[in-house]
Amino acid sequence: MEDTIVAISTALGVGAISIVRVSGTDAISIVNEIFTGKDLSKVESHTVHYGFIKEENKKIDEVLITVMKSPKTFTREDIVEINCHGGIMTTKKIMELLIRKGCRVAEPGEFTKRAFLNGRIDLLEAEAVMDIIEAKTENNATLALNQLTGSISNKIESLRQEIIELLASIEVSIDYPEYDEANQATNEYLKTGIENILEKIKKIIKNSEDGIILKNGIKTVILGKPNVGKSSLLNSLLEEEKAIVTSIPGTTRDIVEGSVNIGGLILDMMDTAGIRETDDKIEEIGVQKSLEIMNQADLILYLVDSSNYQKEDLDLLNKIKDKKVIVILNKIDLKNDISLDNVSYPIVKISVKEGIGIDNLKEEIIKLFNQNKLETKDLTYLTNARSIALLKKSYDSLLSAQNSSINNMPVDITEIDLKEAWNLLGMIIGKTYEDELIDQLFSQFCLGK
Ligand SMILES: Nc1nc2c(ncn2[C@@H]2O[C@H](COP(=O)(O)OP(=O)(O)OP(=O)(O)O)[C@@H](O)[C@H]2O)c(=O)[nH]1
Ligand SMILES: [Mg+2]
Asked: CB–CB of 19/10 below 8 Å?
């Protein structure tokens, strides 16, 4: 690869140690020029050496240098890592010296990009590196690490292999003399084959969508009539007096937001204006917003006031489709004998005021999002929107291929869709890619990675 690149790989600031990382053909010789200690051009690969960085004859810092020779390195190029004393001045000075000797400052993500281009990791694994860096919870880190170790890549690769086998059977049948009979036999074979692959992809998509929710946070909307205690619940979960609480119905007008970690799940909570018919213009806008935001939710906490319950309070539940919902009976300190019939969602009884039932509510949330399943390590997830979109496209192509074979179309037509599906799967792991996409993807990385 062309240039030798350099970057500060640790966060720049005051710390005990900083790492300056150099990668490329000239990495060892360039660092050697500014180092006193052992001659780095003569040392074994994967060894650490003590010495000083110097400018002319002036000592700049006392350092430990790790030399890793191609190909057994992250970028598959020669890599030298300089462990120097953390501190902005020294670290920058060392960078500066290296640039003067011929290094180029690395672009964000360039080390990982080289790892990808040199075949050390595939695209999914590269993205996983970024996810690990950005992981905010243990779950996120576990998901990303799983992707980095390549098990999902293997799965995608084996799906591609299955498609190749189907394509091979098509080729054979096209060459066959009694075309019609062969066509039918092949279609039979294709039908089951495609069905099989579709099932597997469906499972990965489902897993991945759950995974994405875990990664990005669960959009949680607190919904209900005015004065049922929505803002009180938000404050209680956030452990902060974020939203205004009063005994006057219609207190909340705008959406109030806050994030909370419940057993490793990130909930992005939104408190809304209580839903009711109103003549107040501002409140009416708030009510409209509540209804809109309801449609974007992953989870709806539907609050009812036990002390003031009427059957109509549940009317809005009928409008909610395909969402995870928990119905919450609040204010049980005032009245605790309501029973709700015909509610198909889990029901939790709480009193925000007395702090009763909040833990049950949290458990119910964790249950809904299959927290436990995640811990059993069925971790074949794709963790970003790019790859999930490609997988869905691939699924659609396979569906269309399946239709053709069911309708006993000429197999050449099925072949087109199968090839498309195979290609799309390849794009997920970066077997086929466009330069522009790659540049854009890696530019989202932080410097020095
Ligand atoms: N007794 C009792 N009162 C509660 C409880 N939770 C909330 N309240 C009271 O109910 C009133 C309304 O609470 P809010 O949290 O403002 O209700 P809201 O649903 O946000 O109301 P709007 O913003 O008007 O839609 C306040 O006076 C709270 O103190 C509870 O568990 N028990
Ligand atoms: Mg409120």
From this structure: yes
Residue 29's pLDDT band (cuts 50, 70, 90): very high
Domain boundary among 317, 338, 370: 370
Q: Is 32 in the pocket of ligand 1 (CB under 6 A)?
A: no
- Predicted confidence (pLDDT) per residue in 354-394, tens digit: 999 999 999 999 888 865 454 434 455 676 778 888 999 99
Same domain membership, residue 188 and residue 108: no
353 vs 210, more confident = 353
Backbone angles phi, psi at 222, to 5 degrees: -95, 120
For ligand 1, atom 8, which residue shows the shortest CA distance? 229
CA of 376 to the centre of ligand 1 (A): 39
Ligand positioned closest to the Cα atom of 283:
1
Q: Is residue 436 predicted with pLDDT exceeding 50?
A: yes
- Among 140-149, 164-173, 174-183, the least confident range: 174-183
11 found inside a domain: yes
Report the separation in Å between the CA atom of 286 and the middle of ligand 2, taken as the mean of its atom positions: 11
Any atom of ligand 1 within 6 Å of the Cβ of 351: yes
User: What is the phi/psi pair of residue 360, to 5°?
Assistant: -60, -40
Ligand 1 neighbourhood includes 223 CB (under 6 angstroms): no
Lowest mean pLDDT among 44-48, 70-74, 111-115, 319-323: 319-323
Q: Name the closest ligand to CA 247.
A: 1
Q: Do 121 and 115 form a contact (C-beta atoms < 8 A)? A: yes
Look at residues 88, 103, 122 and tell me which one is the last residue of a structural domain: 122
User: Does the pLDDT of residue 296 top 60, yes or no?
Assistant: yes
What's 107's DSSP letter? P
Asked if 253 and 343 sit in the same domain, the reply is: yes
Q: Whose CA is nearest to atom 9 of ligand 1?
A: 229
Is the minimum distance from the CB of 349 to ligand 1 under 6 angstroms? no
- Shared domain for 343 and 396, answered yes or no, is no
Q: Does the CB atom of residue 251 touch ligand 1 within 6 A?
A: yes
Q: Which domain holds residue 154?
A: 129-213+381-442
Q: How far apart are CA 447 and CA 36, in angstroms?
A: 28
DSSP assignment of 351-378: BTTTTBSHHHHHHHHHHHTTHHHHHTT-
Please give the tally of structural domains in the chain.
Answer: 3
In this structure, is residue 449 part of a structural domain? no
| CATH code of residue 361 | 3.40.50.300
Measured torsion, CA atoms of residues 339, 343, 346, 351, in degrees rounded to the nearest 10: -40
